[in-house]
Amino acid sequence: MDMLELKGIDKVYRSRGKEPVQAVRALDMVVEKGEIVALLGSSGCGKTSTLRMIAGFEDVSAGSIALRGRPIHELPPARRKVAMAFEGYSLYPPLTVRENIAFALKSAQLSRAEVDRRVNEIARLIEIDDILDRYPRAISGGQQQRVSLARALVRDADLYLLDEPMGQLEPQLRAVLRGRIKSLLAERGMTAIFVTHDQTEASALADRIAVMEGGVLQQFASEKELKSRPANLFVASFIGEPPMNLLDADVSRSDGGLRLSAGSGMSFDIADNGLEAALDKARQVRIGIRPQKIAVGTGTVRVKVVSNQWLGDQSHVAGDCDGRMLIAVTQGRVAARPGDIVPFALEPRHFHIFATDGSCIRHAEAS
Amino acid sequence: MEHSSLAGRIFRGVALTLILIFFMFPIVWIFLMSFQTNEQILRIPPRILFEPTLANYTALISGQLHTAAGNLEISFMRNLFNSVVLSSAAVMLALVLGVPAAYAFARFKFRLGETIAFTLLSFRFAPPLLVLLPLSLYYQELGLNDTYFGIVWVYQLIALPLILWIVRGYFEDISPDIEHAYRLAGHSWREAFTRIAVPLAGPGIAAAGLLSFIFCWNNFVFALILASADKQPVTVGALAFVTASGIQYGQIAAAIVLSVTPTLLLALYAQRYLVEGLSLGAVKG
Predict the structure, then answer these.
(1) Are residues A136 and A209 both part of a single domain?
(2) What distance in Å separates the CA atoms of residue A127 and residue A317, rounded to the nearest whole number?
(3) What is the H or E stretch that residue A159 is in?
(4) Could you tell me the pTM of the whole model?
(5) Residue A12 belongs to domain spanning
(6) How far is A121 from chain B (nearest CA, A)?
(7) pLDDT tens digits for A174-194?
(8) Does A27 lie in the same domain as A83?
(9) Which strands, in side-by-side order, build the sheet including A70-71?
């Protein structure tokens, strides 16, 4: 069942004497019931604007938002049935932590015992049960953030919006809470959208990730699909750590197929399979290959090692090939020092091929 | 500030004492004068030791002024009452108008917003006499001359800009997301204003109210021109002590002590409020 449907959303900020800023452009998105969705992107990509439009603090400049089939984009925030945890925490300073969390429940006229039960339960879950009687200004930023999260999650709402929900937490706690929140959301079938710029958090918590850039939704898919079938060059280079290697190549015909020539003796023969039809006049493409897919020590591409880092469970080898940097990730240690010449193996079946406008015209073969 | 040598500390002590004497002496002197007769005050050289008298206060409170030239009726208590009524009414009206306006200026960007806010502030730059002549003509036309309402209205020129600009700053310091959170929990925009924004800005509103009360209380020229004897506040009423038979220094001093007391008490009471307000400001950890 569709829980939330965003259709053709535009957001334009106009201020006097300045150029209007288009924060979100023609955004279409459907979130299903019980789904956890991450809005992922760098600062200023429109993800928080999107969240605030759903909550009702920003008007939509065009388009419509429907929650459970009812259009909500013209309702006041109070009537949208959404809960939100704010990036700036926004706790009520004169109330204790307990009162802050219970606040919305009291307005919903639940019995005292029920309110207490729920507050204690959520407080235990995110480990703030020892500070329930303190005031917001007497607790740390990380604690305030958890209180803000608890205040949102404790409510009964159709949709939970979390703006950078764990940005202030320590890494260990973050990992623990991610797991607990995910199982809480799943157990109760809660639908949630959260904003983050942290890929790890997005992949750990979300069922699907919406990658945004420049106000435009680039791709909305599971983490696996974002990695294996990136819709365009932006998604390909944004998702994955370290980022995908990119090489410019000219396309020419060779017997029975196409040849990609990237210079410095790097040329690869591939089957056509309709690729030529997708090319523009310049007959140029960008080849993308994940660092994990480059084998070190075999192959035909010779690079000069720039750095070789052992991260405890994998090696990152950066090599220079006539001014172009290639990074390879291998599971074991690599015996190479900076300055050494080592071979890298780039296999065409691992290539993602992008047209000059950035769209992906061929994905790597599934491995 | 822990870098003081002995000489520095002594210098600071001396400087503070001098400043304190400079500013406090007139107040102490006025206080002493209010318990002296005119003869005692005008004695040369003046003396610190004297036989105190309550004659000045009795004269003010009973409204009978005995001078060498005979008895004079004075309406000091009436003036004091007028001051209280005019200043409190003016501040209340300014709060009712100014607090929502300050909220609007703090939260919403709208056409001409800054221009309007600045125009309101600019009333404070202009000398009152600039507006007084046209105002008194309008007031005569409108029948507002010599009415409480007319004076309360003109006091808005003093109180409204102060409240607007001080309270606006306090509202801007409150994260709008606190109100957003409240509204998401099922409350209307109006409730968020009255239950969240106003209480959080409470200390600021109190400070602004207090300050504008004092400014209204001390105003002289508006009431001098726009009100007649029975509507005049103490500041204007004090002119009555400059009589044909001389200046009644004793009564003036007593009148000053009486008229300063309410604002002083108010300031002392609200001081606690103001300090509390400064520590409440922290919203984001």
Answers:
(1) yes
(2) 41
(3) strand A159-163
(4) 0.78
(5) 2-231
(6) 20
(7) 888 899 999 999 999 999 999
(8) yes
(9) A21-32, A2-13, A62-67, A70-71
